[in-house]
Design brief:
CATH architecture: 2-Layer Sandwich
CATH class: Alpha Beta
Order of helices and strands: EHHEEEE
Number of domains: 1
CATH topology: YaeB-like fold
Strand content: 25-35%
Oligomer: single chain
Shape: globular
Helix content: 25-40%
Length: 97
């Protein structure tokens, strides 16, 4: 299964890296690597994620890596990463576009 990253997900990954890098470039790289690895594992078993509880009707699913929620959809043979949010952040419809 191929993986497609939305512009929002790319911005999220960049922001996460930047935030952590203020304290440690090393740990910023590690966290980004972990998030990417988790997306790759989700692509291997896309039904393994659970529905996004705020938006059950959307058909989106999520997996967790550390303190982050990776929200994705599946279309044909492609896992589409929609957004990555910290557990403490609210997920809004705007982020899911």
């Amino acid at each position: 299964m191929s993986i497609a990253w939305s512009e929002q997900a790319r911005r999220d990954l960049h922001a996460i890296r930047g935030f952590i890098a203020r304290d440690s470039e090393h740990y910023a790289r590690l966290q980004v690597d972990r998030l990417i690895s988790r997306v790759e594992r989700a692509a291997a078993t896309p039904s393994g994620g659970h529905p996004v509880h705020e938006f059950i009707e959307s058909g989106l699913r999520e997996v967790h890596e550390g303190s982050y929620r990776i929200i994705y959809g599946v279309c044909a043979d492609e896992l589409q990463v929609v957004t990555i949010v910290h557990m403490r952040q609210r997920v809004t419809r705007r982020r899911l576009r």
